[in-house]
Amino acid sequence: MSIDNITKTVFVLVLFFALSGCTIKKEPFSPSLQYVLNQFSKEHPEYNVIQIQVSKINNYNLLFMNGLGAYDPDMIDGYYIYNGKLITYFQTDSLDRTHIVDTKVLKKYSGKIDGYRNVFQSKGITEPIQRAFLITNENRIVRIPKGFSLLSKGGYVDTNIIKNTGLKKFLHNYIENAPSVLYELRFKQEKGKQYVIFRPMIFYDSSKFNGYFFWNGHLIVLYNLKQSGDLLNKQNILHSHKIPNYRSLLIDDWNFPYPIKLEIINDKAIKELSLEEGYFL
To answer: pLDDT-derived band of residue 12, with 50, 70 and 90 as boundaries?
Structure first.
């Protein structure tokens, strides 16, 4: 074969692969995730935004799928238009989940997404819906069955951090029924009374937290520790500038999402305050 013929052959092959690359569209989602997305869209066609949040909680790989009327710009590591729906992706740790989502194919958020509303600029409110899934060792995505608990088996494990019995029971009951990436405890003393402000979160503020510990594998982040009084065994609290495998972002609004505000009555009794009672805490 002459040099000219070899050159022509190479050119044709390069052109073929270039054209093939232009026509073949690579999807970022695994077949298992595509199936779950298709089922979710079929069951809830009214939502044009589907928010995917992936987290590892107590050694379980979990995927939360939320149907929304607008996207949340604080929860976008990347996005993709799939079957006419805006799919936003956010993970709360740095684990590699390429087998579920190829983030290199996702589009990067740059301040707006044409054709879709920003939740902070949206006038109307659409009631969201959430479904929770478990990512198995075989990389399958399955619905979490009823009765499934993320707490360690055999009841709660006493970490010896919290001394107050009432607060221990509150934490156990809440976490058992409302799993989250992490939970924050803030403390306040006012007019001789002891208060605890609690809420589930998906990230923590590394510039403001005073320490942390684990409750049955669940992360509890502590703020305003100086006003915790006699509620904690402080010598067992963990301290560092960063908490490994958990995401840190600046928290400006400490009342969104709105927290649960508790008054400590005694060692066994706590009172959950109403909105009016806890407004100024």
So the answer is: very low
Q: pLDDT tens, 231-240?
A: 999 988 999 9
Report percent pLDDT > 90 for the chain: 58
Q: Which residue has the tokens 């006038």?
A: 123
Sequence-separated (6 or more) residues with CB below 8 Å from residue 139? 30, 32, 99, 100
Query: Is residue 93 exposed (0-12), middle (13-18) or buried (19+ Cβ within 10 Å)?
Result: middle
Strand order in the sheet with 211-215: 211-215, 218-223, 182-190, 193-201, 260-264, 270-272
Mean pLDDT of 128-151: 84
Work out the average pLDDT over 29-51: 95
Judge whether 203 and 248 are in contact, CB under 8 Å.
yes
The rounded distance, in Å, linking the Cα atoms of 242 and 204 is 10
**Is the link from the previous residue into 145 a cis peptide, with omega within 30 of 0?**
no
Q: Is the pLDDT of residue 205 over 50?
A: yes
Distance CA 277, CA 112 (A): 39
- Total count of residues recorded for the chain: 281
| C-alpha distance from residue 164 to each of 103, 105, 221, 233, 238 (Å) | 44, 49, 17, 10, 19
Domain chopping of the chain, boundaries: 31-143, 165-272
Q: Give backbone dihedrals phi and psi of 42, rounded to 5 degrees, phi first.
A: -70, -40
Residue 216 contacts residue 58 (beta carbons within 8 Å): yes
Among all chains, which residue has been given the structure tokens 């009823």? 146
pLDDT of residue 154: 47
pLDDT at 145 over 50: yes
What SS3 class is residue 38? helix
CB 190 within 8 A of CB 281: yes
